[in-house]
Amino acid sequence: MSIKFKTLARKNPQDLTATPKYYAAVTPNGSVDFETLAEMISEQCTVTDTDCLAVLNVLEKNIVRELKEGRIVRLGKLGNFQVGLSSEGFDTPEEVTSEAVKKTRILFRPAKKMRELLSVLTFQKAS
Fold it and tell me: From residue 26, how far is each of 3, 11, 30, 45, 124 by CA, in Å?
């Protein structure tokens, strides 16, 4: 199955008077939630969908808990989650305090199998 994409016109943020350029952007094909994932997993093993949903909910809570502690969360062949941040630059180490942190984000680093997926994707322009 191919991933559908659409064409978007985007202006150059450094030169708003320049002619827009056109770029490909993925057209989402729906989404899947925890309940659906739990149901799908239960169809592939002997565990009920309720049990699968319970495990997924606890997994989510534990990932959040561990990220709050500053730990890297390694999910095997899926990948790793980690908190990242951006800060201002200073001339001396003593000037760097918690107030220097300007932005935080969750980083996801896909594992090898997930990265390999990207090399086999096919694309089709949406009509």
Answer: 7, 18, 12, 32, 10
Q: How confident is the model at residue 127 (pLDDT cuts 50, 70, 90)?
A: confident
The string over 65-77, giving b where at least 16 C-beta atoms fall within 10 Å of a residue's C-beta and e elsewhere, is: ebbeeeeebeeee
**Total number of domains constituting the chain:** 1
Under a CB-based contact definition with an 8 Å cutoff, are residues 74 and 80 in contact? yes
Residue 72 in 3-state DSSP?
coil
Are residues 24 and 5 in contact, defined by beta-carbon separation less than 8 angstroms?
yes
Is residue 49 situated within a structural domain?
A: no
Joined together, the tokens standing for residue 4 give 């559908």
Name beta bridge partners: 12. 15
Answer whether residue 1 shows pLDDT above 90.
Answer: no
